[in-house]
Amino acid sequence: MIKSIKLVNFKNFVDETLRVGSFTVIVGTNASGKSNVRDAFRFLHGIGRGYTLAEIFGGKYGPGGQLEWSGIRGAPYAIVRFGQPAFSIQLDLEYEGNQVTYFIKIEFPANSEPYVSQETLTKESKSIYKARANPGFGLQLYSGTNDRESGILDWSKPALTQIVLGSVDQESGRSSWSTPTLTRIAGDYIELYKEVIFTGIPLYLYGFRFIEPEPASMRVPSVPGTTILGETGHNLSTVLEAVCADANRKRILTEWVHELTPMDVTDFEFPRDPSGLVHLLLHESNGNKVSAYSASDGTLRFLALLGALLTKDQAGLYFLEEIDNGIHPSRLSLLVELIEKQTSKGGIQVVTTTHSPDFLGLVNDSTFENTSVIFRDESAASGVIRPVSKLPKARNLRQTQGLGRLLASGWMEDALAFSEFDTKGEKEEENDE
Ligand SMILES: Nc1ncnc2c1ncn2[C@@H]1O[C@H](COP(=O)(O)OP(=O)(O)OP(=O)(O)O)[C@@H](O)[C@H]1O
Ligand SMILES: [Mg+2]
Questions:
Q1: Does the pLDDT at position 329 exceed 90?
Q2: Whose CA is nearest to atom 25 of ligand 1?
Q3: pLDDT digits (tens, 9 = 90+) for 16-32
Q4: Residue 246 belongs to what domain range?
Q5: How far is the centre of ligand 1, averaged over its atoms, from the C-alpha of 35 (Å)?
Q6: Residue 237, domain member (yes or no)
Q7: Structurally, how many domains does the chain consist of?
Q8: Whole-structure pTM value
Q9: d(CA 121, CA 142)
């Protein structure tokens, strides 16, 4: 389970940490930095997908020319905080009872490509590997607690990628420092590979999913076999078809669709068109069959969320942008209930941003503990992240006024502005008691 993500000079954050729980909610005014947090998770996911830094930042096209990955918002020089030479991201997680920390720092030199300048992976405070840039030479890798020199890696991609994917560039014949030369003493290398895999990090980073459904994408029929929901909701029909292949999951899906939408959906059908693409048809109790083309935007959004949360190949962490978007307030409580229920089982984590006071007013105590506000500090042009529960008197006010009202009235930002910025938690903890 991901515990926290720490951002240093990433976009508008100087040095901020977001606490992450089963269900994490992020609020904040426009341009406070909510989507920048999403971008940080996307950066890590790009590593999980085995991309180079250039691909993570700029995008990646598949062999057929299709866009496989859309890169991070903004030019590379706008991903590091304006005027800074480097950013770093640290992810803390607990995997099989062990505390694991992954840290990566990216340097942006004035006249050349960004490179990995530092990277570490630790488990229970013991070093699995450390990598440090050696300019003009490459990324020097040290493995184990005794920092054994284990090879020179290519600094245009994370060491993690090169260790996990092994010798992908081995035959590329590029200049010597840019070719991974992991110590080829087989036992040594395999040992390191195993240690890295056993931290859970590659799996976690790969398993992030980002969902920002767009009705137009959800209406596109899918290619058979594509069972992972695309960022804008592509592949919806095949994702739901896969869910329906399992009788129990199908029952849960149908129950939730029934609850969440005013339509009385009794069944799903996935007809193929002559070109083999898979379409989506919803059967209603009155005998009507409604295709994805004529289903409402809100219905499709619910279906996308349900598809993502109920799918068999479940990801570890879902980042949902503006979850309340297009959803009627009367259905929000069910949406909150759905996510709190699915995440409380422990398999998946959900992080969402929201502008909705109604949504916030509905979260349970445990989600409240994992709700953070991002405040835009105009004087420093930066974002400050704080758990709402650590703001002075937040717990009391939540009881008396409701969290939604505190969001709508701007109380959170005011409370943050008036509590001392530089105390970074310690003082706020006291306020809590
Ligand atoms: N490299 C950077 N350095 C400093 N600040 C940056 C950088 N890149 C972006 N920003 C700031 O981040 C802001 C955008 O943040 P973001 O998109 O995360 O907002 P948001 O909280 O998602 O807002 P909304 O609710 O409108 O979607 C920009 O307005 C800009 O001020
Ligand atoms: Mg945003």
A1: no
A2: 30
A3: 999 999 999 999 999 99
A4: 213-314
A5: 7
A6: yes
A7: 1
A8: 0.92
A9: 11
